[in-house]
Amino acid sequence: MRRTANVLMIIASTAAAGCGGPGTTAKAPPVDEARRHLVTALDAWRAGKVKGLASASPPIRFVDPDQAAGARLDGYKPGDDPTTVDHVVDYPVELTITDRKKATRTVQAAYQVVAEPALAVLRNDP
Questions:
Q1: Which residue, of 21, 25, 29, 104, has the greatest Cβ tally within 10 A?
Q2: What are 5-28's pLDDT values in tens digits?
Q3: What is the number of alpha carbons within 13 Å of residue 48 lying toward its C-beta?
Q4: What CATH number should be reported for the domain whose range is 2-15+29-123?
Q5: pLDDT digits 0-9 by tens, 22-39
Q6: What start and end residues bound the annotated signal peptide (predicted)?
């Protein structure tokens, strides 16, 4: 369900940007750049400063259901094997989070990083 919602958000944002005509397709960010954006977003969550991502330079749209539910990010470890599909870089990440009930757990998560039409880091677990 989350994957479908994230894919629909990407499609909707691409459609909202308008059709650029033939030959204009979004490109995936370079893997090292995608990792920097991922780390920036996760560091903001860990510091409790996710709202500041919208006014960062460049602005980053960050979507994570655990963060939205009020969970605290205690730590994370990006995986070594990101994959690029079309205009998306998929990054596996191990998260250590504490929920509102003070339960701590480790989650094998996946984030999609896109640069076009706007920079976004979206959680999209398989």
A1: 29
A2: 444 344 444 444 444 445 557 899
A3: 3
A4: 3.10.450
A5: 555 789 999 999 999 999
A6: 1-17
Q: What is the DSSP letter of 71?
A: P
Q: How far apart are CA 85 and CA 28, in angstroms?
A: 8
Q: What is the pTM of this model?
A: 0.80
Q: Which residue has the tokens 């204009």?
A: 24
* Residue 89 burial (C-beta neighbours within 10 Å; 0-12, 13-18, 19+): buried
Radius of gyration of the chain (CA): 15
Name residue 93's amino acid.
Answer: V
Q: Are strands 72-78 and 83-85 parallel, antiparallel or unpaired?
A: unpaired
Location of structure tokens 């701590």:
104
Tell me how many degrees the CA angle 115-120-125 measures, rounded to the nearest 5: 115
Q: How far apart are CA 10 and CA 110, in angstroms?
A: 16
Q: Where are the domains of the chain?
A: 2-15+29-123
